[in-house]
Amino acid sequence: MKRLRILLALVTLSFAFGAVPGAFAGEAEAPSPESGPVVIVGEEAEPPTEDAWTFRFLVPTLLVLTGLAVAGVFVGYTVRIKGRYRVSQ
Fold first, then answer.
1. pTM
2. HSE value, Cβ hemisphere, 13 Å, CA-based, for 14
3. Within 13 Å and on the Cβ side, how many CA atoms surround 56?
4. CA 1, CA 80: separation in Å to the nearest integer?
5. DSSP state of 52
6. 1-to-39, 48, 73 alpha-carbon distances in Å
7. Among 20, 53, 61, 71, which is 20 to 30 Å from 10 by CA?
8. Dihedral sign, CA of 45, 50, 51, 52?
């Protein structure tokens, strides 16, 4: 049971460190003209940037491995409980 807790803690931590940083990666709001003196500069079209390799490969890999680990824990737990207790009819 201790191994299961450790595995579950590691899976949770890996999911948290893999998924949470993307949740806060939003763009900041532009200040409104009513908030004070603002100089509006013509917007330049930025060339499309390519995502870093970590975002393209590492994050999806971690998400898949996390899902597989959670499914494995669920299946292992179910098999162990069903193997331990039998219901007679």
1. 0.40
2. 19
3. 5
4. 11
5. P
6. 62, 49, 11
7. 53
8. negative
Per-residue confidence in pLDDT tens, the chain, 89 aa: 788 888 888 888 777 776 555 555 555 566 565 666 666 677 777 778 887 888 889 989 999 999 999 999 999 988 888 777 766 76
Query: What pLDDT shows up at residue 67?
Result: 97
Residue type, 79: V
Reference 69, options 57, 59, 77; nearest CA is 77
What distance in Å separates the CA atoms of residue 56 and residue 87, rounded to the nearest whole number? 48
Question: What pLDDT does 32 receive?
Answer: 62
- Interacting residues of 31 by C-beta distance below 8 A, sequence separation 6+: 38
Q: Please state, in angstroms and rounded to a whole number, the distance separating the CA atoms of residues 19 and 66.
A: 11
pLDDT at 62: 94
